[in-house]
Structure formats: structure tokens, C-alpha cells
Amino acid sequence: MTPLAVLARVRSSLPGAQPPDDDGAARVALLTRRLAVLLGAGVAPASAWSHLAEEATGTGDDAASEEDPGGTDDRHEDARSLHAVAVAAAEGGDVAAAIEMVVDREAGDGVRTAWAALAAAWQVAAASGAPLGVCLRDLAGSLRELDRIGRDVGTAMAGPAATARLVLWLPLVAIVLGMMLGFDTVGTLLTTVPGLCCSALGIGFLVAGGRWSAALTARAARRDPAPGLSLDLVAVAMAGGGSASAAQALVQDACRRFAVPHDDRVVARVIALSARAGIPAGELLRSEAEQLRDQARSDGERAAAVLATRLMIPLGVCVLPAFLLVGVAPLLLSVLSSTALGF
């Protein structure tokens, strides 16, 4: 395998920590907000979902469809999913299960989490008797905030990740520079015994550096996909007038069903505080959820700043030796061989 092929494979293994290209989670937040407004205005759930399905079908004119046929397919797929939910609501079926089918269709983690949160909130509100319109309006705000966190953290991670990808080009740049200077660096690396040794060691350092950088980037990008969401769901459940224990049980069941992260310890601590202070738990839960999301954003930005420094370690330990072995050593070998032939 040539150094160029190894370089391409190593770079492709690095995680791409860029901001999300699509607006899937934000789209779910907008849909939830519209649904909340319709329900708050007295529209029946089945009719509200039907209106959203019709709106999704009619989004964009013919010119926009010609410019973005892939986007048109996505809108039609969304419309079919929303129509399936409307049918389930009209027939008195399990609306949350119909929303769960949309979760299974989506690919991105952010949009899957948003749909799962909507399904869980619908199930919790329906089981607790909480007003759907108010609950979904609060959920829409939470989903928008989660989308902003994902984009902010992704933007912060993009710089260090791009740096890791860029420095892996150094060995190739050295090879090209040697060829521009008139030295047969590729021939030296592939046809001589010292060159083959340098090539093997350089490839080994390059692979090690790429894997090391990928591990550091993946660990820095690891985070809770939905900070504070379980607290929002407990607030939804308690809006129906049930007890704290009943609300916790409803949320735990919904979170398990739709794979939504749930923090029993934080929920129990906040509910205990509200009981001691003699204040409603709903506002306290939402306040704590906002605090958790602010903390998640700060932690993500801090992790990105630390990553930028830590990526210098594989650069110095692995990439620079690979640069010397693949780029500088062939130049020296070529000079020595030409000098020996001169004598």
C-alpha cells in the first residue's frame, strides 16, 4: 500500500466534527411549535396532524422542486409520516407509536432525539392528562435549545478536527516537495531497502497518529444528546395534576420506550427540593433543565478548546516523525546515493 493510499484511509477514519449540515432537529422543533399552536387554538389532534401533513406536502413551488429534487423527496417522506400520525390520531390509535415510526426512519442523532422527545412527551401528556398545547409549546423551546447546543458544540469542534486532518498531509507534502526539487523520493521509498524501511516506519507512525487523533476527537465530542430533557418530561407529567411519584413513573416508562436519556438522580433531587421549599416542582424542573443545557454548551466548548491542545501530542509524537521518515529521509538517501555514484 502506498503512503498516499494510507494517508487517504487514515484521514477518512477521523470523525468529522462539523456543525450539522441539515436542520432536522430544528425542523422538528418548528413542527412541535406549530402543533402546539393548533392544539392550543382548539384544533383536534387528528386535524392538527393532517394540517401539518398538507403543509409539508405543499412546501416549495415547482421551481424549488426542480432546483432541489432530493429536498422534495424528503418533504414528501415527511408528509407521509405526518399523515400516518394523523390517521393514528383519527382512529384513536397510539399516536406515540406512530411518531416512533418516524424516529426509526431518521438517520441523524439530533433529529432522532427530537422525534423521540416528541413521542415521549405526547405519551406522557396523554397519560397524565396534561394540556397538550402548553406542554408541546414548552417542548418546542427545549428542542430549539438542544439544536442550538448541537450546532454550537459542532462549530467549536470543527476547528480542531480540521487541524487534525490538515497535519496528516505533511508527509505527502514532503514527498511532493522532494520531487519538485528533482529527487526521486517515490522511487527511493519503494525500490531501495533503506527507503522501504523508512516507508514502513512512516506508515506505522501515520496510522498511529491518525488513530490517536481520531480517539481524542471522538472522546471530546462525546456528550449527552438531550441534557435536561427528562426534567422537561417530568414537568409535563406533573402539569396533569398527578403526584411526583406517578409523574416519575410515567416519564421513566416513556424514556425507556423511546430511548430518551433519563437522569433519575437529578429529577429526584429537584423534586425533593421543591417539596422542602413548598413550591411547585414544574418551574423548578424547567429551570434545572435550562441550567443543564447551559452547562452542556459550556462543557462542549471547553472540550473543544482542550482538544485543540491535545491534538498537538500525536502531531509531535507521530506525524512529525512520519514527515521526517517519508519526506526528509528519502532526500538524504538520494543525495548520498548520487554522491556515492559520483565517486
Please, could you describe this protein's structure?
The protein is mainly alpha-helical. It is built from 16 helices and no strands. Helix 8 runs parallel beside helix 15. The radius of gyration is 28 Å and the shape is elongated.
List the helices and strands and how they pair.
Elements: H1 3-13, H2 24-40, H3 45-57, H4 62-67, H5 69-90, H6 95-105, H7 109-128, H8 132-167, H9 170-180, H10 185-191, H11 193-221, H12 229-238, H13 244-258, H14 264-277, H15 281-310, H16 312-342
Helix pairs in contact: 1-11, 2-3, 2-7, 2-8, 3-5, 5-6, 6-7, 7-8, 7-12, 7-13, 8-11, 8-12, 8-15, 9-16, 10-11, 10-16, 11-15, 11-16, 12-13, 12-15, 14-15
Distance between the termini: 35 Å
N to C succession of SSEs = HHHHHHHHHHHHHHHH
Mean pLDDT: 80
Question: Helix segment count?
Answer: 16
Percentage of residues in helical conformation: over 70%
Rounded to an integer, what's the Rg over CA atoms? 28 Å
pLDDT < 50 stretches: 15-21, 59-71
| Content-based structural category | mainly alpha
- Count the strands? 0
Shape: elongated
Sheet with most strands: none
Roughly what fraction of the amino acids lie in strands?
Answer: under 5%
Please summarize what this structure is.
The protein is mainly α.
